[in-house]
What does this fold into?
Amino acid sequence: MTRVLVVTAVDLEARALARHLGLERVAASAWPHFRAGALELVCAGPRAAHLEARAPSAAAVSLVISAGVCGALAPDLVEGDLVVPEVVVCSPAMRHPTAALPGLRRAGTMVTVDAVVGTAELKARLWVETGALACDMESAPILEWAATRGLAGAVVRGVSDTASRGVSPDLAAVVEPDGRVRTARAVRVVLSRPRAISEAMTLRSGTNAALKAVAAALGKVARA
It folds into this structure.
């Protein structure tokens, strides 16, 4: 069987996709790790920092997919829109082409950034500078990891926040380096900045729509 390794940054993404796709938790794993049929899903943390330690043997995988949410840079993208780029860039000199996926049309460019883009103004600047449709923090290192092992790599991301809205640093900081979301830290953010409540609710709604779209797309890949 051809096995597809799906990599997310945050455990919330991994759990939601596993639920939508009917994947079962790998009991022996100390981190979010799910499997069923052709799909194997792991959470590798922001910037895929734990991918090397958490990925299964590359010999058992033929395709690696960077999956989860992304931030829109193109003004016409809305929450829940699917982004399946042809190319991922992380600098003018670093371009990673993506593999074709059955049932999905690739289009445009995604840019991988080093930190969460916090404002609409920063998103607009990044769009002008790169021409990318959307941004994330993991796809470039995931594609690079796949390429060094001779594996095909692709990206399937859903828009969680539009170009007119960034993700504030305090909300972004509720995610630990290993990908876990710290509830206590989120509560402290809300108590210190009441406006964060509405921001968090809007981001949650966009994230749910994004992950449903990504799960539907991954389902097509698995069935093919």
Summary: The helical segments are 11-21, 51-54, 120-130, 139-148, 169-172, 183-192, 196-223. Residues 4-223 form a domain with the Rossmann fold fold (CATH 3.40.50.1580). The longest strand covers residues 63-72.
